[in-house]
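Exam prep: given the inputs below (a chain plus zinc ion), describe the expected output before reading on.
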Amino acid sequence: MKANCWTGRNTVEVQNVPDPKILNARDAIVRITSSAICGSDLHLYDGYVPTMKRGDILGHEFMGEVVETGPEVGDLAVGDRVVVPFPIACGACAACENGLFSVCENSNPNAAMAEKLWGHSPSGIFGYSHMLGGYAGGQAEYARVPFADVGPIKIEDDLPDESVLFLSDIFPTGYMGAEMCDIKPGDVIAVWGAGPVGLFAVASAYMLGAERVIAIDRFDYRLKKAREQAGAETIDYEKVNVLEALAEMTGGRGPDACIDAVGMEAHHHVGPIHAYDRAKQATRMETERPHALREALIACKNGGTVSIIGVYGGLMDKFPIGSVMNRSLTIRTGQCHVQRYLKPLLKRIRKGEIDPSFVISHRMSLDDAPRGYDMFKHKRDDCTKVVLKPFSSAAYGTPRPSGGGA
Ligand code: NAD
Ligand code: ZN
Ligand code: ZN
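Solution:
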């Protein structure tokens, strides 16, 4: 089959690879009809996540049709249409029983690698480094889905792929980011990053009762989307001082809660602290780009919550713990526990409360994945979200025969 593979820093390549096979009784094989490129994939592409190997199949946001099931996958049948959540979770460990699926204790066969870096291991994730399980991802024609009796949600035929695909990750992630803010009527929420995750955080904050949501970014086309399609007020951080603007917009108090939807590759302003970070990063003594998170922590009102859904990997310098402690801030974070949100968010889509396809800017064939990565990374051509269609032909790019695989 064809699959989009990591081949080194800033390169991906569509290669012919062996078809996946059922390895365990609870596996299923899914023929992928839609698969997306995520901001988290950029951290791999840009070389920020260790333990990637040449030839690793990328992709953790996918859906498709079940073509084979292991003997213990009772609920799914061949032909079922499913969306697959990005964290791989057993459904029965202490973490899963508490709804903490992204820290499942049974799905990372390489837990020891993660423990070295983080103390304890989170769950495995599709297509997301050897440290997180070394699982083949879903930017491919087919994928093996472990614990298929727990993760995938069945989708009825009347809902198009594009309306439900993002249940695999970014809609639940944005929603969890907002949920962690414990929003009360009248609250003002600020969201750093108007990428797809930030856009879902904005939309979800309104769903959960926020009165005003303010999105912060530097790309005008993304801020426009945040305003026009998610109802946010916006701040362009290259044009105004974010802390001053937020203070002014909130009567001097600061937002009730702040969501970091940027993560480890935050873009920096100039200034002495930037020079300091650059020096520490050059010697690998600091691995993160801390600008957005520091700003969110400083901006938040006294007693407020800072919800971190942007992905971080290692160490951050000049973390303003004094501001957090003395001002009674709460920090909440996590890879999204997607399985928890599948049913309730599918219900919201079904009721027409949201159509997640509003974030999509580009549709491409799987063969075009390298172009999609380059465009999404550099935010070219007003790129917000790329959806790859492994089995489409003429409509999205170079015609080619479909098929292959199981
Ligand atoms: P993206 O790259 O499309 O969006 C990031 C946005 O942040 C960009 O628009 C960028 O201009 C903006 N940005 C950069 N520096 C900034 C700054 N200093 N201030 C304000 N905005 C700034 O990525 P995405 O797909 O939207 O993902 C966003 C983050 O969410 C990534 O770190 C990704 O890994 C993470 N993520 C987390 C989870 C989870 O489960 N927690 C799931 C999916 C994605
Ligand atoms: Zn993702
Ligand atoms: Zn588990």
